[in-house]
Protein: Hydrogen-dependent growth transcriptional repressor
Amino acid sequence: MGKTVENPKRYIISCRINDQEMETLQEIAKMHGTSISTLLRRSLNMLEEQAQPQA
Structure:
């Protein structure tokens, strides 16, 4: 049985990227001291916040 976590990740997303895109992702993740997965999650959250109407 797997470990219990607060926010389980149930889905895997995959896409094809070229060498330059991968290099860019790796560089940005390294600059922020995080993984590419975390970097993409943060990017998604930022885009979601920008899409919300301003009050």
Residues 19-50 form one domain. The radius of gyration is 15 Å.
